[in-house]
Design a protein that fits this description.
Blueprint (H helix, E strand, L loop, with lengths): L2 E3 L5 E6 L13 H20 L3 E11 L7 E12 L3 E12 L5 E13 L11 E3 L3 H8 L1 H21 L8
Bound molecules: coenzyme A.
Length: about 170
Amino acid sequence: MGKRFSRESRCFKTARVFPTDVNNHNTLFGGKLMSYIDDIASIAATKHCRRPVVTASTDSVDFLSPIRPSDAVSLEAFVTWTGRSSMEVFVKVVKEELLTGERTIAATSFLTFVALDENRKPIEVPDVVPETEEELKLHETAPQRAEMRRLRRQESKRFADYLTVTHPWD
Ligand SMILES: CC(C)(COP(=O)(O)OP(=O)(O)OC[C@H]1O[C@@H](n2cnc3c(N)ncnc32)[C@H](O)[C@@H]1OP(=O)(O)O)[C@@H](O)C(=O)NCCC(=O)NCCS
């Protein structure tokens, strides 16, 4: 299995904030932003491995600053780290006040995708090679996040054993 640079998976998306995209605070609805995040991250993961991928987990989404209708919202995503079949993708969300040009980091997110073979089983992905300072920092800190994911996955499996599938009206 070969190697791919982080830049080979890098994707960008910029959008306006339309009236149908806002919540009752007149700022971008969190669910809308999460949909943009999952969308762009899945493209970055697919570009890295050139295989079908699924979202295994949205590890974190931190909403740092509200996005208003006068802002353009830009997302940047790239693969930061790989396991055997899993890929960690980082998404950076920047808002730009269109009339002043002022830019602010509005949100950051980490997600994990898994590459699937023809039988929808996890399959090996290429290693990732970071180059820029940002990519190197994210790559270097990734094993710690991978360990946290491993522990959280164990915990969520244990938790699922306690949950029932009955509805209140059953
Ligand atoms: C993600 C999925 C393919 C993993 O399958 P699985 O049979 O559990 O596979 P494994 O236990 O062998 O794990 C495969 C890889 O996924 C990773 N993984 C599995 N579940 C994970 C989770 N919840 N969070 C992070 N990584 C996870 C494992 O760490 C492993 O990584 P590695 O190969 O790099 O070591 C499976 O759980 C699945 O299909 N889930 C539903 C996905 C989905 O519907 N997403 C939403 C729509 S795209």
